[in-house]
Design a protein that fits this description.
The structure is a homodimer of 151-residue chains. Chain A is an alpha+beta fold and 151 residues long. The first copy, chain A, contains four helices and five strands, in the order E-H-H-H-H-E-E-E-E. In chain A, strands 1-3-4-5-2 form a five-stranded antiparallel sheet, with helices on one face. The first copy, chain A, starts with 10 loop residues before the first strand and ends in a 9-residue tail after the last strand.
Chain lengths: 151, 151
C-alpha cells in the first residue's frame, strides 16, 4: 500500500490473536512487573481479580498485527508517535483480540513530495465484542512512484 | 508514594538503561518485525542507516523504569492510558537512556474519595543528552490512609 491507497473511513481488518498466560507473564516480567501482571495469586487478590496483560503488551500485540496485516506490504517510512492510547478493559489470559485499522485522515506532505501522513484509529475488541484498547496512530507512507509520462 | 506525594513540577530521576542489539531484535521479532528493527543489513540500507529499536520497545523500557523507580513502591491503581507518545530520534544498539518522570498535574477524584489522578511527562534522553522519546502518562493512585482522628 502506498500513501494514495489510504482514504478516510476505510477499515482494514487485521484478524485475531489469542494471548496466553505465559505471554502475559513473559512480557510483564521484562517490562511491567506489577503484581497483577506477573503473579497469579497477587492478581487474584487485586482490584482486577485475576492476571491482566500490561497495557504496553496489548499495544505491542496490536502493533504486530498492524505490521503483518498492513505495514509489511506498504511503503511505510516509520511513525513520529501515537496519541490517545486507551486501556479500556482488562485483557486476560485466553482472550482473543480482533484488531482493526481505520484510516481517519490523510495529508500529502507539502515539503516532501515523495510522502504523506496517514492518521488512523486502531481498535481491539475481545471475544465478547467489548472494546478493550484504542490507539490513534500516525504513519508516514511513501507515495506511489509516478510513471515518467513526459518525454 | 501515595496520591498526596505527587506535586506538579516534581521530577523523579529513574536512572539509566542501556539497550543491546539482541534486545532490539528480540522485541521487534515478536512485536514489530519491520526490516529496520530486525535485520542489520536491511536496516543499514534503510533511511535509518542502521538497526533502531521499535518505538514500542522504547516505551516498554521506559515503563519498566517507571515501575522499578516509582510504581513498585506506590499505591498505584493502574492507568486508563497515555497520550502524545512521541518517538523523536532513533534509539540504537548501545544507546543508554536516562529516564525521568515529571508530575504535571494532580486531581483528587470527586466521586471516589480513596484515590486521585496524577498526570505526568516521561522523558528519555540518550547518552548525548538528546531527547529521544516522550510520553504523557495518566495514573490512578490511592490516597494516604487517614489516621482515624475523631472519637
Amino acid at each position: 500500500m502506498y500513501f494514495e491507497d489510504f482514504a478516510p473511513g476505510q477499515v482494514i481488518d487485521l484478524g485475531t490473536r489469542t494471548v496466553s498466560e505465559e505471554e502475559i507473564i513473559a512480557f510483564a516480567s521484562q517490562f511491567d512487573p506489577q503484581p497483577f501482571h506477573v503473579d497469579q495469586q497477587a492478581a487474584a487478590d487485586s482490584m482486577f481479580g485475576g492476571l491482566v496483560a500490561s497495557g504496553w503488551h496489548t499495544c505491542s500485540m496490536m502493533m504486530r498485527m498492524v505490521v503483518d496485516g498492513l505495514m509489511a506490504a506498504s511503503s511505510s517510512m516509520g511513525s513520529p508517535g501515537v496519541d490517545k492510547v486507551r486501556w479500556l478493559l482488562p485483557v486476560r489470559a485466553g482472550d482473543t483480540l480482533a484488531v482493526s485499522y481505520e484510516t481517519t485522515a490523510v495529508k500529502a506532505s507539502a515539503s516532501k513530495p515523495d510522502r504523506g501522513v496517514v492518521w488512523s484509529r486502531w481498535s481491539a475488541l475481545n471475544q465478547r465484542g467489548e472494546l478493550v484498547c484504542t490507539i490513534e496512530g500516525m504513519g508516514m507512507f511513501g507515495r506511489r512512484p509516478q510513471e515518467s509520462g513526459h518525454a
